[in-house]
Structures are given as structure tokens and as C-alpha cells.
Amino acid sequence: QRVFSEEMECRWSLLLLLLLGSSALAKPGARSGDEECQQNVNCFLPDCLCASTENPGNLPLDQLPQFVVLTFDDAVTPTNYEFYLTFKDFLNPNYCRISMTFFVTHLYNYYDMVNELHRLGHEIALHSVTHKDDVDNYWRVANQSVWEHEMADLKTMLETYARIPAEDIKGWRAPFLEVGGDEMFSAITDLGLQYDCTWPTLHYTNWFDTEPLGALWPYTLDFPSIQDCQLGRCPTQIYEGTWVMPMVDLEDNTGQPCAMLDACNSLENELLVDPDAVESFLRRNFEYNYNSTKAPFGLYVHHSWFYEGGNSTDARRVGYTRFLEYLSKLEDVYVVSVDRLLAWVKNPVPLDDIDSIDEFGCYEPESNCVDTKIFKFTTENNLPVEVDAIYMGSCTLVQPKYYPWIYNPLGDQNITDV
Asked: Domain NodB homology spans what residues (predicted)?
């Protein structure tokens, strides 16, 4: 009996050692796919936040800032640059400038103008090099390598031609909101980016259905997401420390959801011709959050939306501007870029203490893009599209030999077809 017991004890000891060894070799933080995220139990700020409709600091509503996030997609050009500058005099309650996020693409981009937007306090984020319009045959089937080059090569261009510090480039949005599944999120994580802002949600809003679930706050992918998947392929794996900024759907004037303003419809064209209707539409959607949970409210748009219909109307510009003027009168509303919102989410302080977060301070550094150049690239420079010439503004003085493009961000390789 004694021999048997000693033998069994030896076997159990060996099994324990094997289990400990396999645990030590496992990926740090690895967990089973069905483990439930529990804040302050197995998920801790500032690195991990469970997906939730509750604010991360459990603050009373009267102590909770209402955040409004404004983003613009695609290249910054002489066509839209002056429009973006019209918002530089809007201030938050702490008398610092509002900040917006620009998800930038490369084609036709003027990097000197991107530099100035960054200097004024706006966030510059990634939206792909190519922005190819073939969703089915390019984005939907893209592997991790394609996603990585669309992100990393644009990041190199922003660092080189716009002189944006690498550490300031934190976010990504996929073209056409085509969520790229685990391939895309693996690329985000491997490149050290902090967040994605591609993923719309209808179920988690403050207006959908007879008993709305409430609008989602940003969260990390340390655990499987609870968010509904509307477009593309949503991730099935976990990505520790990678943030999701949910694109909470708006309700357009026909009662239908729209993730971006460009897709919002109206009953009688009023959102194209009537500035009062535009302002009313924006205020109604804002108040779904402001008068209930005060979850972040996002307005996501392309510059072209403001000029749809040619020169026949500027109702959208006027209505949008009036909406910002309305927000500027509210002492608990902060219009911030995605990265500033996440800075607060990681350290959720009451409204009166918001200036304790460095990212909310006022600053306007000296320009590091004093000498700018406008480069002209022709067909001799391997243009990727069927045009005779492309212009590119830059903070660098020496023009690349070839037009910078995916797999060739510095324009130093004779690549003709990618």
C-alpha cells in the first residue's frame, strides 16, 4: 500500500510539473474563449476594459463629461483644407481647442496640410494607402500581410512627408468600413497601433428597438466582443490591449440606421437643402446619448458630404456648424479626437478634474514643417492610377524618384504594378 501511494504521489507530482510547464509556455494572458470579462476581477484599466454600456468610472451623470467625437476620412487636399480650418476657433469648456480625428489616405494627399492639422491639436490616423474600391476582390479577401502594408506603409509616409511623430499615430479605420476579421486585427496589434474605429453597431445604441440596450463605450479585445457584426468579418480571437471605438449608428430621418453621415437619408431631401433640418437631425441624435447615458457620440463623415448637390446648397455645412455652436454652449460637452477620448477612458476622472489628464491641455507647438514643397509626379514616376499627373504636398524638400505607394512608401523603387 505504501509503495502504491508513493508511486501515485510521484505521478501526481509529475503531472503538476507538466501542467505548470505548459502554463508557463502559454501566451501571456491567454484564456479560454468562453471566459466572461469581469471588470476589476480579470480586466483592469488602463490596459483592459470590458465591453459595456456603463461608463468606465461608474460616475454619476452630473459628474460625467459628454464626449463628442468628430472624424473625417480620406486625403487632405487644397479642396477641403480650408474647410477643416474653419473649426479651429471652437473651444471646449476648458478653453482649449476642440480636436478631431482625420483618417487619412495617401492618394492626392497633401502632407504639409496634414502636418498643420496635427500642429493645431487634431489626431492623424490611418485609413490605408490605396483605398481601392474593389471591396469584394481586395479588402474582403485581404490577408494579414496586405492589411499590414496598407497600415505600415501609410504610417511611414506620414512620418516622412508630414513629420508626424510615430507615437502620435495610434488608430485605424478600414475603407468602406469593411471589417477585416482576425487578419486585420492581427495587423493592428502586430504594428503596435492602439485602436480600430471601423466597426458599426446598431444593437448597442440609445435609440434602436422598443427597449434600447444603450450605446457602447470603447472597450478592449482582451475578451470576445459582445458587439453585433454588420459589415465585413469581425474578429473571433482576442487581442489584448487593442481598443475598439464602436461606431454607434445614428438614426436618419427615415428611421433607418447609418454609421456615417454620408449614408443618412431624409424624407424630402431636407438634409440636403435645409440647414435647420440638418442641425435638428444632429441634435436629435446627440440627445439620445446626452439625455440618457452620456455615452460618447460620434459623427463620422467624408468632406464630400458637405457639398453633395454641387453649388446648389451649403445647408449641411451651415447646419453642422450650428450644431457645433450649440455644443459649445454646454459646459459638460467636450469635442475630442478618438485618442483623447481613450486617454480619458483609461483614466476616467470626474468632469471637474478633466484637466488632470495631460491630453486635455491646451498646446500649439511651433511648426516643424516650415519649408514645404509641392511635388508633381507624372506617368514617368509610376503613377498607380490612369491620370497624367498627381500633386503631393510635403514637409521634405527632395522629391522621391517614384510616386510613393504601397510596398514602396519612400518612392525609391521602380515598382510599376502593385
From this structure: 66-194
